[in-house]
């Protein structure tokens, strides 16, 4: 064997050994909890198109913005939005400090376990409950309260921690998009600080990539130490027509992919899919009453009515949860 | 020479050849426009501390958030904030469509070239001028208007395009921090959409990392096409105590480094430097009347008074522009 041969062989061997990933690894199914079929294929085709350099629908990495609703899209939202279940638990925990709540609605009914009467006053009652439990502390204190709750509270049906009520196929989708150069954002009707308190650990989404509803904040000094106090006043509702507004305020450019599950996400999908040539708009349709819940046009939580019509009119992708997802929750 | 020796030599050679960067390259001065001295050293020491794994002040990359004021910190702000010069140019350009402005203040004085009388009404006049020139169009239309202006307008003193009035040492600092795993944000009292229109090209800062003052937006359809209309109403003023609020709303975690030049940045620096063990708070002191402008405690633009006292009390870093910067603007 001549020296030149040894040299060439070593170069070949080292080149292979030092490659970042074998092609077999990159071709592995990145979405194993999605059944094969047109829905999964639509996602894969979209990603292939926008990442193909030189293609007509190529999108530069900086513009690969994907936005995800949270409740009903990344985690479950039945029998009530989890943040509302948190507020109920907080009212109970705080009631000893608020003896006046025994005679004041909506607290009085809630403390008797009568949720229906508590909410009889509609939006006003919800605002009362949210502000009473989401203000009067610093942002850092609030984060601790939510994290303590998430560490101990369990879902009324599954009895699992709420952070285990996330959809395994969506976790795979988030990772798949990020592996393809996308920046993933949450755009939630829920509270921005509530969702941030678990989004990084649960979804791999950092706080600066969470857009949501918010209360007003006030910078002030407490004993010489600066803090941001959460005030009992609504600042912004990131739902419906508010979602494109929240996207513009926080992201400043139009997404190319949007994922939602209710009419509250319709404007976000309209905004996304009115953009450049390459875009993906997707609704998750809750069709699985056995593994999850089945609801759409008539539901009080996560109503999907106009959205289903718009999806049909515009050719958007609709996930049939029962048939498109091999697995709903993680194990 | 034995085969084993050849093998070892080849591995050594290839390892060296395939290293991403030689140590000589990484040790090159990353801040060539900064004169050697305590200010430059304070920056380098801070970066070394927070990036030293295992050190007591090590900060994980995800937490390496650096925030920069814009006017007077990244680009000049004299004789007037550049966005205000933009508004004046827009009033002139739009005056043919607004014959009523001839008899209406603050427009009438401004159109006669009498800026002092135009601003006699103080804040009210400024709000009038800004809303008249920053609303009534979509966010995308506004971006185009600003970019057209930046492409043609020139600074009244230097006669250079405004985007050449950026500070070369700060461009180097932005790049240096990013090379060390920092995520760099602008936190400006200026308009969020105004600054976004050039921040990515000029500073390498994408729109989702720009925090600023904003007007209200409204999602609506124009001939079936969705757009976000800029309304004539102030939504948020990202200045003074508003800066930590803007940081929390958009970033959701406390920065570890903050750079400003005026009392409007004081709360941002207080918030940053009340955080964990590792932090850097820095004011730029405009001391160079020859190469730039010299102003501080008594200036109407970029007043730095309480900030200078706070810097002395807290041991924050103060850049003496005249002595610390080898070069002010790029060539």
What does this entry look like structurally?
Two copies of one chain form a homodimer. Chain A has 331 residues and is of the alpha/beta class. The first copy, chain A, folds into two domains: 30-78 and 166-324, Rossmann fold (3-Layer(aba) Sandwich); 82-144, no CATH class. Chain A is 41% helix and 17% strand. In chain A, strands 1, 2, 3, 4, 5, 6, 7 and 8 form an eight-stranded mixed sheet that branches. In chain A, a hairpin with a 6-residue loop joins strand 6 and strand 7 (294-295).
Query: What is the average per-residue confidence, as pLDDT of chain A, rounded to a whole number?
Result: 93
Radius of gyration of chain A: 23 Å
State the largest interface: A-B, 42 and 42 residues
For CATH, the homologous superfamily of the largest domain in chain A is named as HAD superfamily/HAD-like
Under the CATH scheme, which class of the largest domain in chain A?
Answer: Alpha Beta
Q: What can be said about the biggest beta sheet of chain A? A: 8 strands, mixed
General shape of chain A:
globular
InterPro entries (chains A, B): HAD-like_SerB (IPR050582), HAD-like_sf (IPR036412), HAD_sf (IPR023214)
Catalytic activity (chains A, B): O-phospho-D-serine + H2O = D-serine + phosphate; O-phospho-L-serine + H2O = L-serine + phosphate
Pfam families (chains A, B): HAD
EC number (chains A, B): 3.1.3.3
């Amino acid at each position: 064997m001549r020296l030149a041969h040894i040299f060439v062989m070593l170069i070949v061997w080292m080149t292979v050994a030092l490659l970042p990933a074998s092609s077999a690894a990159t071709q592995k199914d990145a979405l194993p909890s999605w059944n094969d079929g047109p829905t999964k294929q639509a996602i894969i085709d979209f990603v292939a198109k926008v990442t193909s350099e030189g293609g007509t629908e190529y999108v530069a990495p900086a513009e690969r913005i994907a936005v995800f609703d949270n409740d009903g899209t990344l985690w479950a939202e039945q029998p009530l939005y989890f943040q509302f279940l948190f507020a109920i638990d907080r009212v109970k925990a705080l009631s000893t400090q608020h003896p006046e709540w025994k005679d004041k609605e909506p607290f009085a009914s809630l403390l008797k376990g009568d949720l229906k009467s508590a909410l009889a006053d509609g939006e006003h009652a919800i605002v009362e409950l949210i502000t009473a439990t989401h203000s009067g502390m610093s942002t850092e204190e609030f984060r601790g309260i939510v994290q303590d709750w998430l560490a101990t509270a369990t879902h009324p049906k599954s009895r699992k921690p709420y952070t285990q009520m996330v959809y395994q196929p969506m976790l795979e989708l988030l990772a798949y998009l990020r592996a393809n150069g996308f920046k993933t954002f949450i755009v939630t009707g829920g509270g921005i600080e509530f969702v941030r308190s678990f989004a990084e650990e649960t979804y791999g989404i950092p706080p600066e990539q969470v857009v949501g509803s918010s209360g007003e904040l006030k910078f002030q000094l407490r004993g010489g130490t600066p803090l941001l106090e959460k005030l009992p006043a609504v600042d912004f509702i990131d739902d419906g027509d508010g979602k494109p507004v929240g996207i513009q305020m926080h992201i400043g450019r139009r997404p190319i992919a949007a994922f939602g599950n209710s009419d509250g996400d319709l404007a976000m999908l309209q905004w996304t899919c009115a953009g450049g040539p390459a875009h993906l708009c997707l609704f998750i349709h809750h069709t699985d009453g056995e593994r999850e819940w089945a609801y759409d046009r008539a539901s009080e939580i996560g109503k999907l009515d106009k959205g289903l019509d718009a999806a049909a009119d515009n050719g958007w992708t609709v996930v049939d949860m029962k048939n498109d997802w091999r697995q709903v929750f993680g194990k």
